[in-house]
Amino acid sequence: KILNNPLFLFAVMMAALSAFSSCEDENLPQLTTLEVTNITAKSAESGGNITDDNGRAIIARGVCWSLERNPTIDDKRTTDGVGNESFTSTLFGLNGSKIYYVRAYATNSAGTRYGEDMTFSTWGEPIVSSRYATNITKTGATLNGTVNANGLPTTVTFEYQYDDGRGWKEVSQTVTAVQSPLTGNTETEVSATLTGLADGT
Prior knowledge:
- The structure is a single chain.
- The protein has one helix at 6-27, and strands at 30-33, 44-52, 60-66, 76-77, 87-91, 99-108, 111-114, 118-121, 127-134, 141-148, 157-160, 173-176, 187-194.
- By secondary structure, the protein is mainly beta.
- The model is unreliable at 19-23 (pLDDT under 50).
């Protein structure tokens, strides 16, 4: 009666599947994901370190990435040859100002295993904030603001217009900030000094 019990048969089947899966897992490669470096707005570098092929030749390896956690080989990926040596990969076609997830993968005859899930942010458009003018005199002023270059070389300028009592002029004038060009990814104070302005305008 026990052998004919559907619940008993189901339990036996699940135990067999679990044992098979465990055996397969033991034969999968062991690897880690390399730190993400050389990040730009469109690309980055990572890779993998295969620590054990478990006696089965590595037939595919690379990194995969996505905007979602735990990317797989069904997402965007690189192919970086075969073998159990460490490897590096370049991720192309990224979008600026995005958070990406990346992890290395390695495949042998038992299947595919992944390294740790790493996250990184691509550089992007600058973040800009204008502030009040200071040091105002009859014919001059200092224009102020902050800029985060977001990792890319950035030219910083101020645009300004004037009103002669008959309305704002449509054509803006431009002055380059003292701190231009900027690099890095921290908020930086920027300024430019205007001289020769019309009194009372």
